[in-house]
Amino acid sequence: MALRARALYDFRSENPGEISLREHEVLSLCSEQDIEGWLEGINSRGDRGLFPASYVQVIRAPEPGPAGDGGPGVPARYANVPPGGFEPLPAAPPASFKPPPDAFQPLLQAQQTPPPSTFQPPGAGFPYGGGALQPSPQQLYGGGGGYQASQGSDDDWDDEWDDSSTVADEPGALGSGAYPDLDGSSSGGVGAAGRYRLSTRSDLSLGSRGSSAPPHHLQHHPSGAKSSATVSRNLNRFSTFVKSGGEAFVLGEASGFVKDGDKLCVVLGPYGPEWQENPYPFQCTIDDPTKQTKFKGMKSYISYKLVPTHTQVPVHRRYKHFDWLYARLAEKFPVISVPHLPEKQATGRFEEDFISKRRKGLIWWMNHMASHPVLAQCDVFQHFLTCPSSTDEKAWKQGKRKAEKDEMVGANFFLTLSTPPAAALDLQEVESKIDGFKSFTKKMDDSALQLNHTANEFARKQVTGFKKEYQKVGQSFRGLSQAFELDQQAFSAGLNQAIAFTGDAYDAIGELFADQPRQDLDPVMDLLALYQGHLANFPDIIHVQKGALTKVKESRRHVEEGKMEVQKADGIQDRCNTISFATLAEIHHFHQIRVRDFKSQMQHFLQQQIIFFQKVTQKLEEALHKYDSV
């Protein structure tokens, strides 16, 4: 019987080799073996290609046996996983992420050889416009498992960028406060000021971290003991909930040092949880894209001048710098929608139209970055904005490498979240809000796609069809004027000139139509492209929150059955509340900037439309006045 799967979420293909999915759509699988988190199959429209494994549920015929659902606490969507655990993947993923020593132990007991300690599901990278933390097909077959920070001839890493020096280990590479110049203290040791240890491990002492024995909550207890049951791990170790560190945090396995400057505060506003406002708001301009060369003219690239308002010191950045920054932020903030960068282009990178379009996209991107209370204060973003790489290469590399060695990622990131004290969330209300937002994003995505298609088609007609048609009308009027001139009557000369002027007016109106889309429709489509990137991020953000809710429900069931202590279940719920607070705060911020952006853009669109039709009216009035003297 052919393997089939049901789509759990919508997925829009944006790279060669991918196929799009619709929620609840049934697909045929070519193989049940996923390749670094991607499966190959055929959708209901007959398209064959790759799609994220975490976006589908494999459908299998039930097999006889007492544990057909995978055992207590295991979701039915993962019931098809063999009892021995996952078979080794064809290729080892990157080794930058190290899971906790006990991360895979309960899943791989049946295997004789455990996976290497450096095993990492490839989740740090994903293509522009695609689902967050999902590698693209080019990454799967191009020899790279992690995030490819640059692709394209002018964005390849060079020796200056990838120097293997270890200057980042020197003190003072990057400030720990909101801005580098506001906190000059080093991270220090355990007793350093402003630096303290946070841990969700209620059953592990610090001295046992190096032990090879499994944690207490994973050890075997007699069946009669009240604490014998534990909340199970997800069998799909490639899911966003697992790769983001959300599962490890909820299960109480996060432990790390948190500085005061790393704390991300969620507060209760008039409409619910929201991020604490940035006390030092700023903006940043992007101007003067210039073509630069290096290696005696053998390599060319475009450099952009950035001027933050809070420093007024210009810095110059290439697109690859933006690309690197995006990769760091997407890896660090699993519950924050990092705006997508304008897409890359293999050819025509130095053409004026492409440079202008990319600059406009980067301006929108920078606007959203500077407007986000968390991203705007992030150390790596401030380093990107303030460190002059061209004049202080050592300081730039120190900050760059410190960002790449950031320990507050994965499960430890959630330790930095500070939620309102004594504030409890109703899980049913939270789940209802999340489900409502999920429906909203799906509808908005569909509407944005439709509007983008309509605007693009209308702009094409204005540039080609309308211009051509108006010029045909103008040519016809001029033809009539030329015919009238054969009369050679003195009293008809004024009429002939007026008709010829009318023809010229219609030519000018055609030119106005051709030029108008860049004034009104193009900015609308640029905004839609930015928000389509945001909408592509939210399925994974929602997946992390949903995964946490699932663990809470499972722990409650264990408490009702007398298999888990109430205190332990309360700890799981508290950590789930932390994720829920952050998710709701991000949703609130998304709605805030959405209202701001679309209000401003619609006002601009209508103003430009009024100016356009005023110009058309002026041309027609000028032609009309020519007949007054006939």
UniProtKB/TrEMBL annotation:
Comp. bias intervals (Acidic residues): 153-163
Binding site for a 1,2-diacyl-sn-glycero-3-phospho-(1D-myo-inositol-4,5-bisphosphate): R318, K320, R358
Entry GO MF terms: phosphatidylinositol binding
One cellular component (GO) term of this entry: cytoplasmic vesicle membrane
Topology with respect to the bilayer: Peripheral membrane protein
CDD domains: BAR_SNX18, PX_SNX18, SH3_SNX18
SH3 domain sequence ranges: 1-61
Region spans: Disordered: 62-190, 203-229
Record keywords, A-Z: Cell cycle, Cell division, Cytoplasmic vesicle, Endocytosis, Membrane, Mitosis, Protein transport, SH3 domain, Transport
Keyword Magnesium listed: no
Localization (cell): Cytoplasmic vesicle membrane
Record has Membrane as a keyword: yes
PX domain: residues covered: 282-392
Protein name as it appears in the record: Sorting nexin-18
Source organism per UniProt: Orycteropus afer afer
Lineage: Eukaryota, Metazoa, Chordata, Craniata, Vertebrata
